[in-house]
Write a structure and sequence with these properties.
430 residues, alpha/beta, 8-stranded mixed sheet, globular
Length: 430
């Protein structure tokens, strides 16, 4: 055991020491959501030992009705999930490919369309429930001899030194590690423990999410309309008339929409969507999630690194949140394995800087793009609507520009991790 970790342990009360069950690992991942499990799966069968700390695993039994929380997985995310052995588990459960997108503005001539055929791709992406992704990743790490899943388990305290990190759990167990990964979401306990400053701003909107059944089939098209209140997305699900909606509206409006009876909500929704799929009927519960942009000042510290929502959160209007997080996981796995194979200490800040620079710039670029889009489509001044309409039609008519936009969204361009390119990690067995 490193001397620094030993000193940390000795600093803790004797009573706590007696209760402890010490486990020594290379990497502790706090959070067993999609990104944390994605990182663990990318490190499966490597020389690194991994412990995942998770408070509650999802129910393995899927209901007939879909969950409200879904993600639009890009091609880059699909490649990552294929590379870590989770994609087959998603396919075996349920998913819906979409091969085209339609985007337009309400009460305007502006519109733009994208299709997979123009890119010689079978699909633009897939709509998958978050729980399905999580369950498939759990399947992917099951039986891996270098991964231990501690659940239900919650972190109680975190201490670190130049030599290592020590994480104490509420049940008295203790984990010593070379690096701790914060994959515990937007309100990250780990980030708070490390006292990492956060730049954040309230979008002033809530995302209302629900499942709806439409009178007309969705035809595997992802649709988004920009309304005066905010964007409304209809994401196709595995049944031909079933969609998941994400409706970004001011908080007061979200509260009012959630309070409506089903009939009243159906009328409001169908009108907001320009009746594009006929009468839409909500199925199951509606929920509204406050939308906040977040950007951690540091993505890495000595013995500590942030991934996914613990590092950044963005507006859902382009559906890039989980894709950004899975790219974090793939990039970090690549960095850790590179350091390990070179015989370097994986937890030193100097060896985490490459990951931090890489992912901070990508997150900042995405945050800026989402803020720009939100501002561009905010407001209903006639001149502004005219400019938007002309712009959308112009981009729609410029095939090279349009292709560049959708290729970037699909993860076909930019500085991508090896897994996102469909390549194996160099030091990870197939």
């Amino acid at each position: 055991m490193p001397a620094g970790v030993l000193l940390l342990i000795l600093a803790i009360s004797h009573e706590r020491i007696e209760m402890m069950q010490m486990q020594n690992v290379d990497v502790v991942i706090v959070g067993g959501g999609m990104v944390g499990l994605g990182l663990a799966a990318a490190l499966k069968n490597s020389a690194l030992t991994i412990a995942i700390v998770e408070g509650q695993l999802p129910d393995t039994q899927l209901g007939e009705a879909p969950d409200n929380r879904v993600s639009a997985l890009s091609l880059a995310s699909q490649r990552i999930l294929q590379g870590v052995g989770a994609w087959d588990g998603i396919v075996a459960r349920r998913l819906q490919a979409y091969d085209s997108m339609a985007v337009w503005e309400q009460d305007s001539f502006g519109h733009i369309g994208f299709d997979a055929a123009s890119l010689r791709q079978p699909a633009l992406g897939h709509i998958v429930e978050n729980r399905v992704i999580q369950l498939a990743l759990l399947d992917a790490i099951a039986g891996a001899n270098n991964i231990s899943l501690l659940t239900p388990a919650r972190a109680a305290s975190l201490q670190s030194s130049a030599a290592g990190a020590l994480l104490l759990l509420e049940d008295g167990r203790a984990l010593s590690a070379r690096v701790v990964v914060a994959a515990d979401g937007a309100h990250s306990w780990v980030r708070r423990q490390a006292d990492i400053p956060l730049t954040s701003w309230d979008y002033g909107h809530h995302a209302l999410v629900a499942t709806v059944r439409s009178a007309e089939p969705h035809e595997a098209v992802a649709r988004q309309i920009f309304t005066p209140d905010g964007p409304l997305a209809f994401l196709p699900l595995w049944q031909p008339d079933l969609c998941s909606i994400v409706w970004s509206v001011p908080a007061v409006r979200a509260e009012a929409l959630c309070a409506l009876d089903d009939e009243g909500f159906n009328r409001q929704l169908t009108a907001a969507f320009d009746g594009r799929l006929g009468l839409c009927k909500v199925e199951g519960a509606r929920s509204a999630i406050p939308l906040t942009a977040r950007y951690a000042r540091d993505f890495a510290r000595e013995r500590l690194v942030l991934v996914g929502d613990a590092a950044h959160t963005i507006h859902p209007l382009a559906g890039q949140g989980v894709n950004l997080g899975l790219l974090d996981a793939a990039a970090l796995a690549e960095q850790l394995l590179k350091s390990q194979s070179a015989g370097a200490d994986i937890g030193l800040l100097a060896n985490l800087r490459g990951y931090e620079r890489w992912r901070k710039s990508e997150a900042a670029r995405m945050l800026a793009a989402m803020e720009g889009l939100k501002r561009l489509f905010g407001g209903s001044h006639p001149l502004k609507k005219l400019v938007r309409g002309v712009g959308l039609r112009a981009v729609d008519g410029l095939a090279p520009l349009k292709q560049s936009v959708i290729r970037a969204a699909m993860g076909l361009e930019g500085e991508l991790p090896a897994l996102a390119k469909g390549n194996n990690l160099p030091t990870r067995p197939k």
